[in-house]
Automatic annotation (TrEMBL):
Pfam families: Plug, TonB_dep_Rec_b-barrel. It comes from the Bacteria. This is TonB-denpendent receptor. Residues 11-22 have a biased composition (Polar residues). It comes from Novosphingobium lindaniclasticum LE124. It is a multi-pass membrane protein. Residues 1-35 are annotated as: Disordered.
Amino acid sequence: MAVSLAGAAQAQEQSTDAQASVQAPAEPVSERQASEIVVTGSRITTSGFNAPTPTTVIGEEQIAANAQPNIFTTIAQLPSLQGSTGASTGTFSTSSGQQGLSSFSLRGLQPIRTLTLLDGQRVVGANVTGVPDISMFPQLLVKRVDVVTGGASASYGSDAVGGVVNFITDTRFEGFKGNILGSITKYGDDETALVQAAWGKSFLDDRLHVVVSGEYDHEGGVGAGDFGTDLAGSRDWYRATTLMNTGQTNNGLPQFNYRDYAQPYQYARYGLINNGPLQGIAFDANGTPYNFNYGSNGQPLGNGQVSNCFRGNSFCEGGDLSGAPGSGASLKSALERINGYGRIGYDFAENNEAYVTVNIAQVKTDNQPSPGYNRGSLTVQCANPFLPQLVRDRCAAAGITSFGFGSANASFPDPRVYTDRKQYRFVGGLKGKFDLGGTNWNYDAYYEHGITISDIRVRDIVLQNRYVAATNAITLNGAIVCADPVARANGCQPINIFGNFAPSASALAYVAPHENGPFQHTKLTQDVLSANISGNPFDSWAGPVSVAFGGEYRREFYRVNADPYGAGVSDISPNSADYPADPLLNSTLGSNWAAGNYKNGRGKYEVYEGYVEVDLPLLNSDSIGRANLNGAARATHYSTSGTVWTWKIGGTWDTPLDGIRLRAVTSRDVRAPNLSELFAAPTVTTVPNFNDPFRNQAVQIFQNTIGNTALQPEVARNTELGIVLSRPSWLPGLSLSFDYYRIKLDGVVSTLSADQIVRFCFDGNQAFCGGFQLDGPQGTNFVNVQPFNLASWKTSGFDIEASYQWQQPLGLPGNFTLRALATHIQKFIVNAGIAGVDPIDQAGNNAGATPDWKWLAVQTYDSDRFSLTVQERWISDGTFGNQYVVCQTSCPVSTGNHPTIDYNTMKGAFYVDIGATFKFSENLQLYGKIDNLFDKDPTASPQTNTGLDVNPALYDTLGRIYRAGIRFNF
């Protein structure tokens, strides 16, 4: 049964299949099966070992019952996983490069602190943060997934701070099987087609084993909607909910107000005069001027502000929302993935195998981050020939020659982001057993070479300076042209921004070159050489002593090339003919695009490490039970930061009380800085009025955002205490577990602002004094903004897991299984490590990834011909942020640490899924499933802008989904 497993000894009491799935009855195992069990929580694989670290197991039957096109979704539903990323997250972003990236996050510690393995082996990262993409795994061959909810760095190395997710494949599969799945939402989108097939066969008297698999998955995605509040399909839950900033901090009223239908008053769908005596004149689709309908009964004040509206972030409530861009972002990236996998294993001796695996995969996504191009700070000349005569006359009457103007540019093509990730992974290894001095030993050694090629392209994003030049038009020799002669000489074509007038093809090619827009080409490589040996060298008074030891070498490398308009001039820039020189653009610093300013860079590091792990039986008695002590130590040398030690010590006690086991473990774990943090491609921003505290004057600086090769590994202390009730004689179908955890993470990599870096130095902290210059010649002053080991996190809580299996319930054939898992986060304190910034407890922050409670419950009835599964998912109510002080009147002074707010409750969610399978025969199954049966809408997650106000990491944003498919095997 897939309950919280302590280790191999517990697993011995049931078959491998039963261990992997709650639907399967418990059966005895053969001696061979018991010896083959590998427990992810430890490197020790001998059958008598009880691991102190809790491990939740999801088996292939449960994976199949959940009927997802990507196994990632099934695992991410576990309560201990918080903040995982997938196709529904990251869709609002243009430049992150993480669209469609499926990666796990345990304990809310972010994906970079969860180690994800394939058959116990590392996988090359899918981007420069080092996290792999689960979409690229051979999913049909997965037998089970082990989720270790605790620090495992001493056993597995860096990144296992939150825990380990290990995918175990069927390396000896024989036969042919397949799966065909189709799905669609209630709203007629995200049409999905999944085709999977696998074949395996043994040759040469069962000594040669060949396994191949392939899969194709097409997911149509959801989005985008339109401006205003119109979402994709007929979804009607978006209300442009925003935290309105009054700008007042000490008037006794809350600074932030929770409001629906936030209207930005700096721009409108087809243009709005937002400053000067003509403020409030907008333009309709035909270019006809009209008086803009401000919400909140607002009236323009002529100075860029609007009465009765919220000055702090320039919003009114209600009114004309047609220019608000939030609803235009995709709810889910469209995704296409192709995966091919092959494995050849040869038993060169009994219980000894040499093998080679090849995994080649491609994942392509696209999404729309937001519609149009929102520009609220244009200066328009009254002489602009596109401007209606009525407005020109008003200019003359007001005695002005220009005015401030903002537009959502709804006539522009909507931007889209396209990602294309290709992965090539090759593994060769040896595994088996040998006898030394009368003792049996297990060994496992492998070499892995992985390559990821990632390309990101952004279409229909404007070059900002060209856009400004194209909007500034004049009449010259009877023709409307760009006013700037330099821009005209370089191909500028004028654009009419007063109405729904699509730019001409030539004007659009100048402002937003479609084929030659922002792009980033990244190559990552990973080489791993690993060897592990385990055995029982001798017996103690209580049983065999188990030992595991080994070593690993790893090399990580990346190189990224970007377009010169974004990255600036570089010797690795692409063909300059595609990006011709333009005096309007900054050729040296780049950053010319409105979004998607990727940079060039490269970096590498190497890792050498060795470890030893020992399991010592302490007790073996019917009267006092069985107990063991487990300890491990690992020395790791990073080429960038030196040597660091990790360790763990823990144990289990099978008490004489029927079915009760106690377990405990404490460990020191690390996460080494990743390639992005160490060698981030530099970006440069000009800051014209930077405050120099040393001379008390404003200076112009270049802000260089760079990596930091001096970063040290983050260090965590992880402690867990647990109690397990496992199939007591008085109720043999019952299993329960309760585990308390506490994690303290120091030296968390975080980034300071330029002002903070200089201020820390000014206050006497010499560690920050080497990265800036403020008193050099004109044009040479700079501040390097880079990550430091500053922050610390503390989190604690507990996991509860329960399952019960009832055979032949009420006399019916088959089995009825109940399973429930829950995680409660008691606290999640983030200390930025910055003077003047208070620590914040993020437990219960539903706008983030750490709700107070998250649970999953599954009920399954399974007979020979039919199975029915009902699943419930629940997250508790929370807040928008625990830093806020809630008040209505008599509010305290609102501060940066503790701003005041009038409402701070973010409702949780309860989802019900239901699925069924009909077995025509042992070889053919028809299945169907409905996710989010009651079409529960997401709760608003308001920000201080008009972005899409949802949190897809916690809430379902797609609505009811219908799935159906067929499985077969021969």
